[in-house]
Amino acid sequence: MSLIVQKFGGTSVADPEKIRAAARKAIRAQREGNQVLMVVSAMGHHTDRLVELAEQVSPRPPARELDMLLSTGEQVSVALVAMAIDALGSKAVSLTGGQLGILTDNTFTKARIRSIDTARIQGLLDCGFIVIAAGFQGIDDDLNITTLGRGGSDTTAVALAAVLGADACEIYTDVDGVYTTDPRLLPEARRVGVISYDEMLELASLGAGVMHSRSIEFAKKFGVPIHVRSSFSDIEGTMIVAEPESRSVPVSGAALTRAEARVTILGVPDVPGTSLQIFSAISDRKIAVDMVVQNVGQQGLADVSFTVPGEELEAVLDAVRDPAERLGAAGVLHDDRVAKVSVVGLGMATQTNVAWRMFRALADAGVNIQMITTGEIKISALVSRDQADAALRAVHQAFGLDQTPPEAKTWVQIRAERAAAADLQTLVSRLRDDALEGLTLTGISVSGPQARVTLHGVPDHPGIAADVFEEIGRAGIFVDMIVQGYDGAEGSTSISFTTEESGLADGLAVAESIRDRFKMRSANAAGGIVKVTVSGIGLRSHTQVAEILFKTLADAEINIQMINTSELQVNTVISADRAEAAHQQIVKAFHRSLDRGD
Ligand code: ADP
Ligand code: ASP
Ligand code: MG
Question: How much is the pTM?
């Protein structure tokens, strides 16, 4: 008998009528001959109200007690759904995270699932019950109640679908699918028929709140197809699967993280181990860092900038205080009036000028870019928060995201092609039964020889990045990583990019002409570097990945010249003569970590 997992978000169970509608959906699926497991979120904004209550009794509620409180929201809704199903004449049982056998680690408010004991659920399903699972929660080894982080019911649903080998995982929500960007922000956003795991993982991690990013890690690891669809209509929504809708376009979605914050540590020694001290203090608190830009050292000193979620700023400033002091940093700056706009697409890995198109779109909209980082399939720009919506609209329009791409495939076509391709396999390096949400790596590699080109004293005004990369593109230079960030001097930034080593002389010549044209402080280039890439699933949210990398390189006395992070890859640029040693040490370090089941 086939098994269907149906997840209902908060708005889909916000009142008794909606609860009855959800119950009817489950009963219908059961009558069609399926076993049905529902995963339900807290009603409406119940969780928000619980958070407010907590804040009213304590400025800093202990995380354990917060989880104890927040988990009650789901306990209310699952019981009501079970009652509604019972009243409609079917058999139902509601279960909390603990009763479901969802065991997590003890990181309260951000716990990760370790294992799920499926026996009880399967037994109930086999007896004809509709099982109603409380989303977003589990228990740790000491029977403490834990929660998986806001929006975590998606992760409960996909995890259960994965371990039970469900035939379908349907996410019922208040939109009728995944859009090219949040349709509440941009009405011209287009609903996509299909989106790939990799794209959805990046988009979710970069602010597309429609899916909890960790649910996509599960889906990718276990090959669970997800159907995102409306609770309020029967129209087909979006399938999240391994394949993209189209490979012919560079960008398939855009996302906004409105509440981002930037932190800059000024004047730290540009020697091995600096990054480690700063970032291990942050990753100890399980805070994911993004947009790391270390400007290339001058007089042996560097400025390290990075962004973090706005609500974590206070904790991050607290965490970096000691390491900044130990390193003799000249100061710590922060700005919480910034937002991050990102574009994501599998197609950009093979197309040139994508970054330039994004920068030009922002320039034309009068938006100044404060920081830039790129990844294999994403580009992020940090902008002032009051320009966030204009920035999102500009990039959405520039990449024609409101139009269906040429050669777009439907899920029906993809499924037919899958059936024809005999050996479709998901990339999974190691999965352990007791570490379901453990780190999954898919490769560690070293690039061919590369060169870095850097411009210092880049004026901090709209259009400059677009002009720079327009000229570089015109010279036929293929750019790999790009970073732009704070430059130590007031009102100026630095831009660095990497390219193949054979492009060094051309790169420098173009950089010098740009320097002269825009009266920048300096242009320089250096070869003899390589990019070391660690690939996997959910790397940014597994905060230990960057730490392991930094620690390994610091222990081997290897200086990190550039870095970028995404959910799929962490890249570090180091000197080529240390490449072999770095590669070996990194492989060893990650093997040790996987053996420990981190
Ligand atoms: P639920 O309570 O069902 O989990 P959420 O509020 O978590 O619902 O997620 C649905 C919301 O996600 C939508 O109402 C929409 O505003 C927002 N959203 C953000 N990005 C996207 C996107 N790319 N596509 C669709 N919806 C998005
Ligand atoms: N109720 C939780 C929240 O509001 C979990 C979820 O809805 O997914 O974050
Ligand atoms: Mg949600």
Answer: 0.95
